[in-house]
Predict the 3D structure of the following.
Amino acid sequence: MGQLFDKLNSDVRFVEGIKGCINCGTCTAICPAAEVYDYQPRTIAHLVQTRDDSIIENLLKSDTIWYCGECMSCKTRCPRNNAPGLIIQALRTLSIETGLFVESEKGRQQLALKRMLSDTIIETGYCVHFDHTTLDMFPEQGPMWQWVHNNKEAFLPKVGANYKGEGPGAMRAIPQSDIDELRNIFEVSGGFKWMETIEEHSAKKAQEMGLDIGEGKASEYFANIYTSNNQAKHSRK
Amino acid sequence: MKLEGKRKIWNEYQKDIADDKYFYVRSCIRQAVFPGSENTYLRIMRDVLKKDVHESAHHTTCTGIGYHTEVVPFETIQTVVARNFALMREAGYENYTPSCVTSFGIYTEILDTWHHFPEEKKRTAEYLKKATQRDFQEPGNMAHTSDIIYKFRHQIAEKAKYKLVNRITGLPLKVVDHIGCHYAKMFPEKGIGGAEHPHVLAGLIEAFGGEVIDYPERRHCCGFGFRQYFIKANRGYSIAASKKKFESMEPYQPDLILTNCPGCNYFMDRWQYALAEMEGKTYDTQGNGIPVLAYEELAGLMLGFDPWEMGLQMHQVGIETLMDKIGIPYNLSEKYKGAKGEDLGVPESPRNIKFYK
């Protein structure tokens, strides 16, 4: 056993996720990620069982651990009650803590996700806020959604939304006192440290790649990681 | 003997659901994309079933999407969840009812974690106290809002104005259900029917007189995959998974896709539009696409609620074909009016999928 394995094994999700894989491949047969990516959850379970730090380090640097969609279909069907999806969560956590996530194209996407999601959480109290659901980021929402955005003030009350209003209701403005409590939770429980870790390692990588890290979505690095897709490498062989 | 065996197995997939006095927590995606859907649920619960449903203005996201994209650590989400539990007890409630399947999965996972690893719960309590001065207790009962609709499905059906029946042929309409991965794939015993025998939506379809279609990819993921959708470079994963489902259900020509999870409601709808624009194909025979509704939207429609006040125009795939088959009257001139009846114009029409305006 090595240091990286010991760290993995200190994550309760890892303990729950691997109880002895028999390499049957049922998880791979059911996995939506395995249909589109060069990915097998069976291999993940097999590799972590080696307890070999050099193998684990390679995983932490790889695109492989970022292919999973965390749907947890693998959990349902595993005859030994393993959950490769939970192993993936523990590996991703360690990849971020060690900064190795920036060594892969898919891992580098963490900066965009941090700026799209955790920044939104601590600013608004929501993971996803209506104002951010714009067609430039999500064009598949179609022309109907553009109409909704164009007419939000006049239309949203019709369907019972309390858009940016006080009190309860859909799309309400969450009171600042509650946002402050949420931010305190992030401070005390390591949420802010996690976000800073992603920013710091991404800034170093951006410099190495000659890209401006910028702020928010106004960033060359953000634009690069949000759209880069080495299809030949990632696609199922 | 055989029947007894089946009954025994089925009993493992039942769950206790509270009768009344619910603490309601909203879904980030459902309220941002289908706000009328959540409003419809509250109308059914309060106005039709006369239940006590409390919503605190102070609850926040559970941070589940952040957790499943690895931008929120496990320690943080546990503490945010504990805060929402604390708000429930402070308001005098103990029956926790999230409107989101991702959240339902999060709450289930965290309660299970606290059961198996009490040190995680102890640390969470310390973090919560330090950050907010609050104390928390676990819910007495926890059920997804679709579980509640399922529990009262027969009462709702008794009060319904319409049935899931073709008004011309008199035959049941064909419905495919999609319960969403995090409803039961992680903890099958926490979902009605589990992951393999999904019944939370099927029971509602049957109560309204429809026919449940058990198509091959019924249990396949819609393709959200969290990071696989939010990052544009990964979105092929998402649309490919939905396409696999549409192709699998196409031979059965369903009249409706019924969903449980707000994300699935979104993907089943939007990816049909995107596939029509990309490939010129719809998965019905008339170029309409297959209508998609959440359980609460369907229940509201059957009860005779106004479709446009429920926000059904916020689906990109039109619901009109379903209403026409059932015989539900609707006024197209009201579809795109504002809350005060003002004319707001109409959206542009997609190229390859019929649009009613």
Q: What stands out?
A: Chain A touches chain B through 89 residues (CB under 8 Å). Residues 110-228 of chain A form one domain.
